[in-house]
Amino acid sequence: MALRQILLVPDPRLRKTVEPVDGVTDDIRRLGDDMLETMYDAPGIGLAAPQIGVMKRVFVMDCATGEDEEPNPMVILNPEITWASEETETSEEGCLSIPDIFEDVTRPERIRLRWLGLDGEVHEQEFGDRWAVCAQHEIDHLNGKLFVDYLGPVKRRMIMSKMKKVKKERARA
């Protein structure tokens, strides 16, 4: 396993729709391991492959963050939302590619997700709460969409301007 560098906005790769995974290979398993290690190290609860410059439909998540919760790392290949509730939930979101910025985003409260697992099997499961929010956030990444796209234009421009400065400062360091 290896830590990968997380791309920061406004990297153009974060705005691209990525390609499906052809199947489960040793490279994909290694990618999943690296992504989980990178996500935990950041620390975060989700990470999409484009955030580390890999243009494939892969994301990882582990929303078991409570002290009484066992870790539940998931590697999700070629995810597809097959159902979303009409009920919505507004919650604060952040992003490892937009560090230290948190804003309220409204999304469906529950979703049903179908994906290919590392076992080569197709899985389908309903998610609610932060699991549903995280999965939707990461799928947005696979489609070139960021959580700031849900914000008003003025707030979005302010955040993007701040991130350009942060990225320049980090490049000089």
What are the defining features of this structure?
29% strand; Peptide Deformylase; 29% helix; alpha+beta; 173 residues; two-stranded antiparallel ribbon
Can you tell me about this structure?
This protein is an alpha+beta fold and 173 residues long. It has one domain: Peptide Deformylase, CATH 3.90.45. Helix content is 29%, strand content 29%. The protein is built from 3 helices and 7 strands; from the N terminus they run αβββββββαα. It has a 5-stranded antiparallel β-sheet. The protein has a two-stranded antiparallel ribbon with strand order 4-5. The model has no long low-confidence stretch (mean pLDDT 96).
Q: Topology of this structure?
A:
Layout: H1 26-41, E1 46-48, E2 58-61, E3 74-84, E4 88-95, E5 98-108, E6 110-116, E7 122-128, H2 129-142, H3 153-172
State the oligomer: single chain
Q: Largest sheet at a glance?
A: 5 strands, antiparallel
SS-derived structural category: alpha+beta
Number of strands: 7
Report the average pLDDT across residues.
96
CATH class: Alpha Beta
**Helical content (DSSP H or I, runs of 4+):** 25-40%
- Contiguous uncertain segments of 5+ residues: none
Number of contiguous helices: 3
CA(first)-CA(last) distance = 26 Å
The tally of structural domains comes to: 1
Assigned CATH architecture = Alpha-Beta Complex
How much strand content do the residues show? 25-35%
Radius of gyration: 16 Å
Summarize this entry quickly.
With 173 residues, the chain is α+β, with helices and mostly antiparallel strands. It is built from three helices and seven strands.
